[in-house]
Design brief:
single chain, alpha+beta, 5 helices, globular, Aminopeptidase, 8-stranded mixed sheet, 8 strands, 175 residues
Length: 175
């Protein structure tokens, strides 16, 4: 019987998606650096800030941390602004598990959508992966007014959005 939250990767390695811990900080920095091809400079202090300010998930197995994602919720919109898997060959299996964990938590919080905030240099392969997971490129101007208010704080002019609706209908009255 398999452990809860553990899945086989490439037939050999068992991977668990879980909340990040302090002892993961160096590994988080390593995964982000490798996945971003050194475009993002992350040290343990920044990873610690993420740990205490966001929902920070890691995908880890016998070989260590191979994926990291950070998210938070505001006004029924889940914002995922950190999503990295390294090595890239794990993207499909590890990335889908990270997204599944975020979307499950966002569903519990009644979120209408998950908005992936991506740097403009995000590789086409990552965008194609996200598209395959149900995410669509959305120009900021085409978003609902409330979503624009929320996401406006997250965009600084050099990011792009990929959005996946998590609910069929928007919440128009207090829950």
């Amino acid at each position: 019987m398999k452990d809860e939250g553990v899945k086989e990767i490439e037939g050999a390695e068992r991977i668990a998606v879980r909340r990040a811990r302090r002892q993961d900080l160096a590994a988080i920095a390593r995964v982000v650096k490798k996945s971003s091809r050194s475009r993002l400079v992350v040290d343990e202090a920044l990873a610690m800030e993420w740990l205490f300010s966001k929902g920070l998930l890691v995908a880890a197995g016998g070989g260590g941390v191979v994926g990291v994602a950070a998210w938070q919720v505001e006004n029924l919109v889940c914002i995922t602004d950190l999503f990295h898997v390294a090595p890239a060959r794990y993207r499909e299996r590890v990335g889908s598990r990270l997204l599944e964990a975020i979307e499950t938590e966002a569903g519990v919080l009644m979120c209408e959508a998950n908005a992936m905030v991506l740097p403009t240099w995000t590789p086409k392969t990552v965008r194609a992966f996200l598209h395959g997971q149900g995410y669509e490129h959305k120009p900021f101007a085409e978003l609902h007014r409330i979503w624009r208010e929320v996401l406006g704080e997250w965009l600084h002019g050099d990011e792009e959005l990929m959005v996946k609706r998590l609910r069929d209908r928007m919440v128009m009255a207090p829950i």
